[in-house]
Amino acid sequence: MLFLLLQQDELPPSSSPSSAHLDLRAANCLNPKNHIPKRPEMSLQCRPYTTFAVSPNAEHIRKQIKKMLPVPRTGDSTEGKSEQAQKSPIKIVQVAGGVFYGGTDLQEKMTDLIKQITKISSIGKDWRYLVCYFHGCKRIENERCHMYLIPLSPNSTSGTVEERQAAYIKNKPMLNPGTSIIILLPPAIQIQQSE
Description:
CATH superfamily of one domain: Jelly Rolls
Order of helices and strands: EEHEHHEEHEEEEEE
CATH class of one domain: Mainly Beta
Number of strands: 11
Mean pLDDT: 69
Low-confidence stretches: 1-46, 75-87
Shape: globular
């Protein structure tokens, strides 16, 4: 038997209001005449994310960005500090539950990384990025169901996307505690603390 998972928006109006529906199709895999071909477009529709390996050039830049980031600690904000402290290559802004990183050096590396990622993705020129660290679990609000995640730490998303990969995300992912990650997002996406 071949089981295909259909999303609710693909169901006819008379179907039950469950979140998913099973489409059962008999297939005799031993008889090539009766074999049902795989439908890759179906499997992509059912998953809330699609992972892909980043190019060797993008991976090299991702590793450079990872090395640039200091280990975050509570109170590590360069906002309001002296001009000498602000000359640090990485600026740290403390937010509720985490840290945002910035600075000219990081911006240059992110520009290079985005150029590499746009070669294999649908990232537009008006997209923004966040380089973040979250102390606790964090749900990312993905209002347009359209963002990319590039992890900078292992086990950032419980297996959804690992280091050396990027993921196109169509849901609201939950990030694990202690996650450093790059979020590529179109305008009007908000990040909110989970409750």
